[in-house]
Amino acid sequence: MKRRLIAVLVVGLVLFVSVVAAEEAAKLLGDESDGSRAQPIHLIPLFAENDKGEKGAQIDPNDEFAMPFSTRWTCGACHSYATISRGWHFNAVDSNAPAGRPGEPWLYFNSKLGVQLPLSHRSWPGTHRPERFGLTPAEFTKIFGRHMPGGGPGEVTPTDTEELAKQYTSGKLEVNCLACHNAHPGQDQGSATGYAMQVTKGNLRWAAAASSEFADVTGSVADAGPTYDPFMPDETEKKAPKVTYDRKAFDARGSVFMDIVREAPKQRCYFCHSDLTCGPNDEKTEKWCSDEDVHMTAGLTCVDCHRNGLAHDIVRGYDDEAAISGNAMAAATSCRGCHLGDENGNRPTGGRLGAPVPEHKGIPAVHFDRLTCTACHSGPFPSDQPVLAKTSRAHRLGTINVNKETRVLPHIYEPVFAKEAVIRANSTPTIGPNRMIWPAFWGTLDPNDAVVPIAMAAVTEVVGAVLKDVAPTDTGDWSELKEEQILRALKALGASGQAKAVYVAGGTLYQLDEAGMLAGRKDHPAAAPYLWPIAHSVRPAAQSLGVGKCTVCHSTNSAFFFGKVDVDSPVASVAKLTKVQYEFQKASHARTWVFAWSFIFRPWFKVVAIGSSALIGIVLLYFGLRALGAVARVLAEQNK
Amino acid sequence: MFQVLSILALAAVLVGIAAHWVLTPANGSRCVLRGAVHAFSLLLIEQRSSLLGALKKLCYLVTAVCFVVLAITGFYPTLVKGEHISGFLMYIHATFAPIFALCMAILAVTWAGGHRFTAEDCPWMSRLLRRVTRLQVVADNRPWPCSLLLCKATFWLVMFLMLPLILSIVVSMFHILGTPWQHWTLALHRWTSLVFVLAVIIHTYLAIRIRMAS
């Protein structure tokens, strides 16, 4: 018995040591910091990926048929690529990754066919999975990979043989470390030969190299011949992708100095996370006419708040994130985390990074239960109507040949003050500013009354034939659709085998009734607008809502409660419809209006209350002094 | 904690009043219904035909109505639902509050003289002074009117509590107090209102009993 026990203990100890050793062995040189805040010098050799998907030869700039370097095998020599590729920017296709707060979707649009559809691999309510829309990961990557940092759908291995062959040629869109961590001003994401263009042309294997300052890529996979093999050099393939390295960038040992920094410069973030707010009457605006986020002007960068470790589980910065995210800094780098700290903690943690601790003088505490910080401090100052906004990912900002018209699709409106989705059970929904899009797409009704989008290929073929006479607009705006055209399109879809075809646009679901006529339903959840919270740009405190006056929000003509929100639709008959902001806050008109109207009497309330207090105070003082006098007289008589 | 303490305190006061009413019956009907009607009619005090009397009576009735509305709208969400006042209840509460404040100020002016402590109220004072001090106070063994004394005391308590009750809300409307102080003034308003309501209930009960006795 004793011997058996000793044997079990020894085996257990051996197993423990081997596991620990294995863990230690798995960590690469760059996975853990030694604590130095100095930037390590990246004078490193570059490696390509071979035809087996493994580490290939070192890049030789003198090789006429040099391969593009692979970030997996170059950066991955010191930094665990597998761990990094599970980070937030890369894990959209991972069904185990928590979706968290709804965010900006990918927007597929076609102005002529009346399509404006929010897509996401994440389970955000109101978005649709790309595969249900007929987009394979490869097609999705080709369309949207321009503003993706790689990984995710770009690295999904297809099961279809034909798709697999295509991926062999084009390569996978690896995590492009340079997209964030290259501090060199030559990092090229958006030019005619940069990252975005390479992805669009299908040159996924070449995209990271093309983005670097020391490599140039010409040609494209799409233009190459049918027998093109990237691993078998062929001089006859003149239009195939070709990478040319700057020989001066390589030293005598074939290593390249790469200006890699831990803290991504804001310029890198801006390529994917820029936005442009249009004027109140859809007039064009210029970047120089608006200010950056106040945190930037104060000297912070994006990654001062949006931090991550090796796991790249980057902080998104919303309340309740700490309950979902594994990032240790999620709570500390939210608005409250930096500015107020942990109010229930044992030690002070507010005022991080020089953040002022707000006093919020004169603001009743109920505001902090009902509103997010961003409601008063972020986004454009609300005007009578939300305005159109453009974002990098939706409108291809920063790439070439961008349509700069204000009404170009997709139509994103901001700010719309709405109750935000509850992330954690038992937490109270709060009101905050959002961007909003009205989905428009062709779909079918399933037995559960849910709408499934019809694949774009089928829509293009069937609906496109019906709408062939509809002309696209010069501005990129909707081409106007008439109800008669919708009717014909639904009938055509039905005839093509799409049972119970419907069209969703502008908050209405159009379907054929039993008589074959067009009927509209305004209450269907599939037609509801998709909203996602915004947190930038943060305005200075002096420009926050309610500064100085409560009536900025609490009045019967305030933009916050009574602003008119356009119902965006290509359908001609609903083009002028609007909703009111309070509808998105789940409030009633009567209650909202009565409360706003009551603020007219607030000054009188103060006058009456203070006057009454003064009168009561005078009475108390008078009779109190008289009583004191009487007591004093009594005591004086006693002393005689 | 506030919810529990409020319920306990209100229950204790109401039970105490009921017990006092049963154990020490005042003049008047012992029938509950008749007694209630009698007590209600006593609210129509100062039945003077002068304009001033009528105005004072009106002011008192308006105050009583405002008090009931404010008490219900203020305590119902807290005691019954366990949540803060909000929505239409808050709008009603905020509408009746300034009217109540104004009426209370008028009552303070018109009633203060009649609620002064007099020598007849204070035999207990001489006894207290003799017990706790070394002053040579003449003994005064006259029976002292407990109900009247308590009635006056609760009147002054109510008037005194009006100040923090009003100012705790009004001050929060100016750009003076930050968030921690906003929480504090809200708590002050809540607790003050509890004591205020208890004092008003006791005062009203005693006022009715005194008038029934007289």
Q: Which class of secondary structure composition applies to the elements of chain B?
A: mainly alpha
Radius of gyration of chain B, in angstroms, nearest whole number: 20 Å
Name the average pLDDT of chain B.
83
Uncertain ranges of chain A: none
Count of individual helical segments of chain A: 22
Query: Going across the major beta sheet of chain A, what is the strand order?
Result: 9-10-11-12-18
Total DSSP E strands of chain B: 0
Characterize the biggest β-sheet of chain B. none
Helix amount of chain A: 25-40%
Low-confidence stretches of chain B: none
Morphology call of chain B: globular
Question: Averaging pLDDT over every residue of chain A, what do you get?
Answer: 91
Tell me how many strands of chain A there are.
Answer: 20
Tell me the quaternary state: heterodimer
What Rg of chain A do the Cα atoms give?
31 Å
Secondary-structure element order of chain B, as H and E? HHHHHHH
Protein topology:
The complex is a heterodimer of chains A (640) and B (214).
Chain A lengths: L1 H25 L15 E4 L1 E3 L5 E4 L12 H4 L6 H4 L21 E5 L4 E5 L17 H8 L16 H10 L7 H4 L13 H6 L3 H8 L3 E4 L23 E4 L9 E4 L7 H7 L2 E3 L16 H4 L4 H4 L15 H4 L10 H5 L26 H5 L2 H5 L9 E5 H4 L16 E8 L11 E7 L3 E5 L5 E3 L2 H11 L16 H13 L5 E5 L2 E5 L5 E4 L8 E4 L25 H4 L1 E3 L11 E3 H4 L4 H10 L3 H38 L1
Helix pairs in contact in A: 17-18
Chain B lengths: L1 H22 L8 H11 L8 H31 L5 H25 L11 H10 L13 H25 L8 H35 L1
Helix pairs in contact in B: 1-7, 3-4, 6-7
Structure write-up:
The complex is a heterodimer of chains A (640) and B (214). With 640 residues, chain A is α+β, with helices and mostly antiparallel strands. Helices cover 29% and strands 14% of the residues of chain A. Chain A has four domains: 38-97 and 133-262, no CATH class; 267-437 and 531-587, no CATH class; 441-528, no CATH class; 606-635. In chain A, a hairpin with a 2-residue loop joins β15 (501-505) and β16 (508-512). In chain A, α17 packs across α18. In chain B, α1 (2-23) runs parallel beside α7 (179-213), α3 packs antiparallel against α4 (87-111) and α6 (146-170) packs antiparallel against α7 (179-213). Chain B has a domain at 1-42 and 152-214. Chains A and B meet through α21 and α22 of A and α4, α6 and α7 of B.
